[in-house]
Amino acid sequence: MKWEFTRGAEGTKKFVICNADEGEPGTFKDRVILTERADLAFEGMTVAGYAIGAENGILYLRGEYAYLHAFLEKILADRRKSGLLGNDILGKKGFHFDIRIQMGAGAYVCGEETSLISSCEGLRGDPKNRPPFPAQKGYLGFPTSVNNVETLCCAARIMEKGAAWFAEAGSRGTPSTKLLSISGDCTGPGVYEFPFGIKVRDLLREVGGENAQAVLVGGPSGQFIGPKDFDRIICYDDIGTGGAVVVFGPERDLIDIVHQYLEFFVEESCGYCTPCRVGNVLLKHRVEKILAGQGEPGDLDALKELGDSIKLASRCGLGQTSAHPVLTTLKNFRPVYEARVKPRADKMEATFDIHKALGPAESIAARKSVIYNH
Ligand code: SF4
Predict the structure, then answer these.
(1) How far is the CA of 205 from the centre of ligand 1 (A)?
(2) What percent of the chain has pLDDT over 90?
(3) How far, in Å, CA of 296 to CA of 302, rounded?
(4) Which of 29, 115, 258, 356 reaches 20 to 30 Å from 62, CA-CA?
(5) Quick check: CB of 276 below 6 Å from ligand 1?
(6) Which of 204, 225, 221, 217 lies closest to 246, judged by CA?
(7) Which atom of ligand 1 is nearest to the CA of 316?
(8) Is residue 279 within 6 Å of ligand 1 at its C-beta?
(9) What is the rounded distance in angstroms from the CA atom of residue 2 to the CA atom of residue 11?
């Protein structure tokens, strides 16, 4: 659909961008593809260029993968020498296409396609308002198709083997296979290719993660599920994922893990809109209150309400998904939270930790404060 929209859009030039900025915690499949099958990704970009009428492609490479830069440039140079890039590709008159590599600088938000385009344009990696969509006005204002590494590899394979071959594997609603980066508390972490439609339970058996108390499907912007959902299947009609699966064993403190992901989102928020910039900090503080043993039952409803508001009111995908670790653990692991909160005998609400707040003053005065609870 993206290719069709980009092809049909008005523009004197068109662009193909390969999003190799994989920054979702727990995702590392693109690194493996670009190390072992980079030719396939470049071939997919070239096919996309032909399909939409673009002469220029950009591979946007995650800053942390800078060590792959020279290796990928060499592959591009070899493809130029073989007539697979450049003018009149493979002798086809008028089929011109070439690819340049643009380095990212480590910002998670640049995985979002409009921020990625801003970054390619030499601007700060901020998301843009939509509409217009990149297929209408993308890189430098020209129609642009932004696809991820795996999609472009699939496109190259489909051209080679046909759509029927591609659709042989998979579930009814989601044909084909999916590369999953699997990590965490399992004996066989790594990149796996499974058909869409695999049950979470079968996947855990394959990777040695049967003891899991929780599985994070789709990275922190995805969802935490527990054993009652392990018979659900991975596909876009049930549990969708861009490729990250993180397994958490029974000894892990889920609330502490949620807190770590919130720290990540607070750090990575671009700060443009208030619900994401401020809301994630408020979420983090309330989770910290629970971790410190100060949590009360009302905190759980407050977390849900705040998380829903951030999701609804944020401007881009980061803020629209950053509350997922909180919201999906609240939904699927509520007893874990309930065991950590209790009503206060004095019916007051603790809005801050007085002992912690007095810490600096106590250290200056070199004596402890006396705190009366009534
Ligand atoms: S949701 Fe977050 S990352 Fe996205 S524009 Fe708003 S502040 Fe920036």
Answers:
(1) 38
(2) 90
(3) 10
(4) 258
(5) yes
(6) 217
(7) 4
(8) no
(9) 15
Read off the pLDDT band of 373 (50, 70, 90): low
Q: At 244, which CATH number?
A: 3.10.20.600
Q: How far is the CA of 276 from the centre of ligand 1 (A)?
A: 6
In angstroms, what is the span from residue 275 Cα to ligand 1's centroid?
8
Ligand 1 centroid – CA 146 distance (Å): 19
48-82 pLDDT per residue, tens: 999 999 999 999 999 999 999 999 999 999 999 99
How far, in Å, is the centroid of ligand 1 from the Cα of 118?
14
Work out the average pLDDT over 92-110: 96
**Across 226-252, average pLDDT:** 95
pLDDT of residue 345: 81
pTM passes above 0.85: yes
- Ligand 1 atom nearest to 280, measured from its CA: 2
Domain membership flag for residue 209: yes
Token pair 């989102």 in the structure block, residue: 265
**Same domain? 151 vs 215:** no
Residue 258 pLDDT class (50, 70, 90 cuts): very high
Residues 120 and 18 in one domain: yes
In this structure, the answer to whether residues 12 and 87 fall within a common structural domain is yes
Confidence at residue 348, expressed as pLDDT on a 0 to 100 scale: 74
Cβ–ligand 1 distance for 323 under 6 Å, the answer no
What residue's CA is closest to ligand 1, atom 4? Answer: 316
Q: How far is the CA of 268 from the centre of ligand 1 (A)?
A: 9
Q: Is the pLDDT of residue 364 over 90?
A: yes
| Cα(18)–Cα(177) distance, integer angstroms | 20
For residues 83 and 88, give the distance between their C-alpha atoms in angstroms, rounded to a whole number: 8
**CA nearest ligand 1 atom 6, residue:** 273
d(C-alpha 71, C-alpha 74), whole Å? 5
CA 235, 238, 244, 246 dihedral sign is negative
pLDDT mean over 357-371: 89
The parent domain of residue 211 ranges over 177-248
CA neighbor of 61 nearest in space, from 77, 81, 76, 46: 76
Q: Are residues 209 and 147 in the same domain?
A: no
Judge if the beta carbon of residue 319 lies within 6 A of ligand 1. Answer: yes
Atom 1 (ligand 1) nearest CA: 319
